Amino acid sequence: MPIVRANTNRHRIPRAVLFAVTIFAFTAIGAAAQSDKPAHTPTPLGAPLDITVPANPAAFRAGGEWHLVYELHVANLGKWDCQLTSIEVLAADRAPGQVATFAAKELEAMISHPGQETAEKTKIPAGSFAVAYLWLTFGKRDDVPARIQHRIAVKIGDYPEAITLEGVLVAVNKDPITVISPPLRGENWLAGNGPSNTSIHRRALIPVGGRARIAQRYAIDWVQLYPDGKTHHGDAKDNRSYSAYGAEIHAVADGVVTQTKDSIQQNVPSEKPAVPMTLETIGGNHVIVDIGNGLFAFYAHMQPGSLRVKSGDHVRRGETLGLVGNSGNSSEPHLHFHLCDANSELACEGLPYAFASFELRGNGWGWKQSEPPAAHIKREMEIPAENDVVRFPAP
């Protein structure tokens, strides 16, 4: 492509004018550099927030309803504190309609400041960063919009009026959810730290390799209850006392084993881990399986020496991979399970899924098998919610 040169003889700016403009620019910059911060916040040009959505949501079903789960990463690029007063979620693929509004205590509860302790969660100091964890619920699938946008009200410094920011368009994945088989069999399995907006898994934003992700967004710590609701009988320091210990772990779908880890020593229940926690040991003895379509199944905290597969093996749905143990970042025998989008324990984004069917027996750590059978509900094409107690059907 030829280079087009400007004609320097036409529209030349007189030297005197150019000199005056230059002096003015230098004077203005110098004055700004030397001036003190105003006593009060001047009229803002707009909200000085940079808001991104690191992972678009996918619609999934739990508790008989449909849900969207995602995060807003909010950076304050201004020199004044910004206080979020409300976040409205609007449908963007149809006539404008409000999907949800979060304000006051509800908004406060869904915001965190990674790496910082703050008294007011909704206040984002100048040059600081916060995360808003959103969880939207819909009665039926048709109510879920294909695109959503946001209207965010923010107060800047001591400026008396809130500034409204509109935008942050997000695409929603409404494709059919991935259906998997249960990784365990039998009854009285409790979905510890399972899907909810306050679960420790939900908010486990962990930086690996220069990028922070939530691999455990939909993760579940499966523990098994005895009929009396306890996870163990006898010596609480003996792994063999726990109902889940030694249970067979099954492949949730056909796939290829991409990663295994074995020989990590088991922990004594409720004691500090037997080995130092690193990115190599946090999952304990584990297996990762590529189940296709960019999905990877992660099974963690197995017994050492119990793995029955190795990297490169092709596995079939329902095949035994190993046994439930208590290795890695684990306080008692259980299976940590999640799906994500990369061959990694933590350097990936967690994705939702559904079981073809399971029986909901109840909810909570205090649940007992003697509770009325009226609470037993068959669920289809759902993921269990936090602390649901379920029975998985026989294969």
Question: What key phrases describe this protein's structure?
Answer:
globular; mainly beta; Immunoglobulin-like; Glucose Permease (Domain IIA); disordered N terminus; 2 domains; five-stranded antiparallel beta sheet
Q: What do you see in this structure?
A:
The chain has 395 residues and is mainly β. The chain has two domains: 49-171, Sandwich (Immunoglobulin-like); 179-392, Glucose Permease (Domain IIA) (Distorted Sandwich), CATH 2.70.70.10. Helices cover 7% and strands 38% of the residues. It has two helices and 26 strands. It has helices spanning 15-34, 104-109; strands at residues 49-52, 60-62, 65-76, 82-91, 97-103, 111-112, 123-124, 129-138, 147-156, 163-171, 179-180, 186-192, 206-208, 211-213, 220-224, 248-250, 255-261, 285-292, 295-302, 314-315, 320-323, 335-340, 350-351, 354-363, 377-382, 388-392. The strands form five sheets. Strands 11, 12, 15, 17, 18, 19, 20, 22, 23, 24, 25 and 26 form a twelve-stranded mixed β-sheet that branches. Strands 1, 2, 3, 6 and 8 form a five-stranded antiparallel β-sheet that branches. A hairpin with a 5-residue loop joins strand 4 (82-91) and strand 5. The longest helix is centred in the first third of the chain and has 20 residues, at 15-34. It starts with 14 loop residues before the first helix and ends with a strand. The model is unreliable at 1-35 (pLDDT under 50).
